[in-house]
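Q: What would this chain look like folded?
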Amino acid sequence: MKGGKRLAVQLLRVGRAAGAGSRGGLIRAVALLCAAAALTLGAGALVSAAAVYDAVAQQSQARSPRVLQGHPTEKPIALWKPGFDVVDGLQYSVVTIIPLTSDAPPPPGVAAWPGPGEAVLSPALAQAGAAEDITGRLGRDVGRISEAGLSSSSERLAYVRPPDALADKDKMFTITGYGAKGPYIGDQLFTEPLELFALAVVGLMLFPAAVLVVIAARAGGEARDRRAALLDALGASQTARSLVNLGEAGLPVVLGAALGMGALVGLVATDVSLPFTGFTIPAASIRAAAVPLGLTAAACVLVVLVSVVVLHRHNSSRSTIRPGGGSRRLPRWWPALFPVALLLATRGPGLLAPGNPRLFLAIYFVAALVTFATLPSVLALTVAALGRFLGRLGRRHGGTGTLVAGRWLTAQPGVTARLVAGFVVAIGLIGQVQLNTSRLSEPMIAAQATAERIGTSVLTIATPRDNARTSAFLASLPKDAAVFSLRTGPAPDGTVLSVLQAPCEQLQTIHQDCGGDGSSATVADRDARLAELARWYAPSGRIQLRQGPLVSELPAEESSQLVLMSPAGKDLDIPAVKRAANQHLAVATVVEAPGGGWLSSSLLRSTRVNWVALFGSFALIVVGLAIGLNSIAEFLRHSRSFAPLGVLTGRRGLFVSVAAWVLLMPTVLAAALGALVYLWLSGPYTDPVVGAQLSWPVLAYLMGGVLILSIAIWGCGAWSAVRGASHWRPAAD
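A: My prediction, written as structure tokens:
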């Protein structure tokens, strides 16, 4: 038994020494280290996301009120009411709260009860709303909510105690404490469920990491095959060969897993906001998940090591573990599918599935998948044609590097295309995820169109039935705004009637004569802004204009809201209007442009693009590593054939030139073709039926990242080839 252990340890040492001394051993070690780091970081991100979501749920539950109706035996302590406001285009929670007893505990994170007309804000809300005077808008600012009452440091939340005159106690919940399952407030209302977030992590982090693991496990196959043949000749078993392979890969894999876990922990320990998103991972939630994260790192090490053993199945009849050329050759008609699939993706959904969103998307996805699958074959044809051109150019002008690169590309265009096809897949995958996450509903698209047409030159304000409050609010409004009352109620014929009522001088600002009793003309004939009001607030699409007072008794069956318009058509001062509304109407009074609620929802959905940019950057880096390491290994394997030429001529720049054509050019070409196809395929997806929006920043990040990675691959390949040539000897091969 002891002898077996000693033999196993000896075989592991042999593998370690063999890996360090083999040709291409450094590239393989780097590949394994990067693969283990990427897989650990991706899996750790998934575990961390689950921990963060769980922590957010616990924090939200800790501050959620226990409503008296559900706990009738408990003592009432406060009145509580949730609401919403908008800062920088995004909604946040505003909680109106009034204590009922002197010893009532304040909400978690609030040091002391605010007085009447005072507010306590989260630090992130105070910072984000500084330009909109948020500290004076909700009430007198008397402090900040501590971390104990927030789900994250970036959460926007406010607790407001209204003045006694504005306390609508009959509309508030009576609560007995905190710690119920709902209703929730804060960021949890505006975040995507864990399932969708996990799907993005799996698609844009774990999948590229798995690809890198496979490539790293197969790297250096030529040297390992020679070593396996020697072990076969010595009578070694499959277990012995596996132990040698594990000894070669063990140290880089363990170091890579430690590096990946260290990077994840470092983000938390230093309290750094994630790039693109600005989200700060709560350190406490990650510390609570220390054991699952450690087990995840160990599992990633095991997965990579098992992949190293399983993916190296030595066959003595082959000289390499790589598949033969016959198994990799595609049918000649394969490139011809590319234009067919591209045409089907761009024109097929509209022709074959008009008005059917599900079939529309099904046709599009299938055609897009075939398009990106056949794009590498088109790239291979392009590379072959470019290789022939470079060969002719090199012969004509005597360019050695150009001639060698041309012959290389002409001889194996498929290999070159396959090496860089990952960038095409990465651009397509990230692009499709971005388009899918940016899909907007029809009301969101309509709200964006309304905002483009009229901006905030029209505002609607929800008003209470208390006329005294409304009169006080009107007296505090900016003087450059025309004020109207929009009333909606039943008409004598049973339909719903919308009436815009105001004194004569206000009606004249929208070109309405005051001589008659009113007009039911189409609002578009009066003012384009009224057309937008009718589109959003008049069920019949028409608004009747009528002269009358702004404040009057309102029948019970009618509803009313105020409308502000800028006579000059300029944007109104929303912060000033909201401040006046909060002071005289009610806390968190809804003040918005027509369709403003849907516009906020569309802006919230557009923030998903930031997460796509973050995960896409990771995917691009991992794919770039996979392509770079694979390409450099392939380049070094073939560069040995013309190493004598560089040594005899003394021109080391030959390797730089060849590497530029063989490594840099195909990578840039693949990225350019992938981006063009992505732009072309975005056309049907941005159709109003689907509602997606193309993100130019994400595309710019992709192209910039590919360019940087391409230059890095070129530099590493050229340096490695020059270094290898400097050690070349006539008997070296």
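The CA atoms of residues 510 and 527 lie 6 Å apart.
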